[in-house]
Amino acid sequence: MSSSLLEGLNPQQLEAVTLPRQSALILAGAGSGKTRVLTTRIAWLIHTGQVGPLSLLAVTFTNKAAREMLARISAMLPINTRGMWIGTFHGLCNRMLRAHYRDAGLPQSFQILDSADQLSMVKRVVKALGMDDEKYPPKQAQYFINANKEAGLRAAQVEATDDFSRRYNQVYAAYDAQCNREGVVDFAELLLRCYELLAKNEALRAHYQARFRHILVDEFQDTNRLQYLWLKLLAGPQGAVFAVGDDDQSIYAFRGARSGNMFDFERDFGVQKVIKLEQNYRSQGNILDAANALIRHNRARLGKNLWTAEGKGESLRLYEASTDVDEAAYILDEVRSLNSEGVRLSDIALLYRSNAQSRVLEHALFNAGISYRVYGGLRFFERQEIKHALAYLRLTANPEDDGAFLRVANFPARGIGGRTLEQLQASAEGAAVSLWRAACGNAPAGKAGTSLAAFVRLIEDLRAATRDLPLPEIVEHVIEASGLVAHYKGEKEGAERVENLEELVNAATAFAGEEGFAIYSADRTDGAPEAAAASNAPETGARRENVGRSDALNAFLSHAALEAGEHQAAAGADALQLMTVHSAKGLEFDTVFISGLEEGLFPHENSLTEDGGLEEERRLMYVAITRARRRLHLTHAQTRMLHGHTRYNVASRFLDEIPAALVRRVSASAALPALPPSAAGALPARAAASLRSYTAGGFRIGQSVTHPKFGAGVIVQAEGRGADARVQVNFRDAGLKWLALEYARLQAV
DNA sequence: CCTCATTGAGTTTTT
DNA sequence: CTCAATGAGG
């Protein structure tokens, strides 16, 4: 099997896989075999004896990508991947911090806050500072904190110039102080803390720099500043970083990703070799041509052109719907006929720019009885009942966790009201201690004090009773003894929640039994340096079966925070796939529908005011197009219901950027009766009825028009008659304008 | 403490 | 329009 490792690679892939030890940038276009190159290189490095499995580090953005990488490596090499440093940025940082918690200034059982936990902590801090949460929304403060952490800045280093940033920075400082008191870290903190650990601890830095002879990075275009700095520090001056990315698929600038890191990387790491992977193994020619033509309109590019050895394939299809409902009907018909031709539903994707668009589509599919699956719902570990159970578990691991305390102190209800908690918070703040300590110490007299004491006793009992239990039994005991299960059993719609709680026990069982364990546990088997070894728990070198209760529980809680689970429970076997373009990244389908291709929607109107926003939208469109293997349908609607109002949209400029020769315009599907060609005639009866309000000039609301100066647009409002008649036109490029019909030389399209 | 009503916001999202 | 979050009242 090993001799066949390199078989079937094209020359560029082969060169990338077998590159000598040096920093290199691999520009890997969509569908060019990026993951294959990455995993084959790892397998090749190990197989040829250039590096041991424990001396390389590979980092991804999602757990899914990390799992896939591990699975592919196991398939290529007969080695045990357990213990290898392959994971997400956050997962790897967590692992390092667990191993060196003392050097990092963290308690051994530090807990991880997810975004919701973080927001509630920020709210508490804003309140404690006596700030007006209307004027300074906690959400904004949270954004401020994360943006600065991701830029590598602590509150003391932030240059606050205006009043708002000064106030938010105050929140940042207080928030960090509170996190330290409670022994909790947010996602960005995992990275920043790990970065600082390596930056200030020379022995540790030297150890890891020497250890990780090869560092491989997936989706490099999505790295933020802090991740880049972390990589640089970890690699060191002698490091070899193999970065794989595609600047054309950078669609997360809005959350801090800097595709500019690719330029910096070439400079900072003295990159000698930039390899472009441009042969695409996924899509047929017409689809690739469309993608290439579109993305050529972007200026900020490293430059790359995809090609395929396959034929041109089918033309793209463009359908202009009258309404969003009509658009859904078209898609439905096409899906039906494809399905009857033998295309599996799960091989068809329905993509849209924003989640709100899925509603109409779902409605149509539901009524037609077509099974579908929507990505992007509540995830398992984010469910209320699961968060409650985790809060109890967290309190048994670390009672100083105020967030967990507040979440369950009165859930299930046990007579600890808002008033009691307020008093407790005040006394905790006064003494600069956690709520737990405040509750243990000077519990107020009376009924409130009794309830608090009972809660304290409950947590202590949970702790004592689970001390020597294996992980699944800890979880089982806690969901029962906390009263959660009983509470939900008593609720009329609580059956599903009880099931989820039981599922949590199963999750713990699965977790304890598999390798996920190693990823989140402190790393004890790979000889960290003195400074580090000293900070490890006494049982250095312990085997997995000896790992203590707190380790197993901490690992499981980390897992819960860092891997919130599938977006939705896997539905029936064969279902149509509905998702936003963002969540489609990395996936591929036989047939893809991109819906809502309208100005204002895609590109989204908010993006137009942002710096580089339009180019990011175009990259997003590029990602959408390149998901398709054989068939690509593009649809837009003249009229769409959004936020309770009808909007009249112009076709997306992206449609104009695709060469007409690649596209076949289709009118309503063959399954529907043929319609007259005129725009008004093509409207379904109910839509036409609602639009039949003609203005004096003979123009109609919803009609497409052109103006000699402003170009293409759609009439969205009309008023007045005769010489006073005015219409409001939504121009694709010029935006909304009121025009007097007497003067404006408007033309119907 | 729970329920009902009002209010407001409404791109994209992983960790 | 529709969902989530907050606040008043039983």
Task: Sum up the structure in keywords.
749 residues; eight-stranded mixed beta sheet; six-stranded parallel beta sheet; globular; DNA-binding
Describe the model.
This protein is of the alpha/beta class and 749 residues long. It contains 29 helices and 21 strands. Strands 9, 10, 11, 12, 13, 14, 15 and 16 form an 8-stranded mixed beta sheet that branches. The chain has a 6-stranded parallel beta sheet with strand order 3-2-6-7-1-8, sandwiched between helices. A hairpin with a 6-residue loop joins β18 (711-719) and β19 (726-731). It is globular and about 80 Å long. Mean pLDDT is 87; it is low at 530-547 and 669-691. It binds a DNA duplex (15 and 10 nucleotides) through residues 61-63, 88-91, 112, 114-115, 186-188, 190-191, 222, 251-252, 254-255, 353-356, 359, 376, 410, 413, 415, 417, 561-564, 580-583, 601, 604-607, 616-617, 620, 641-645.
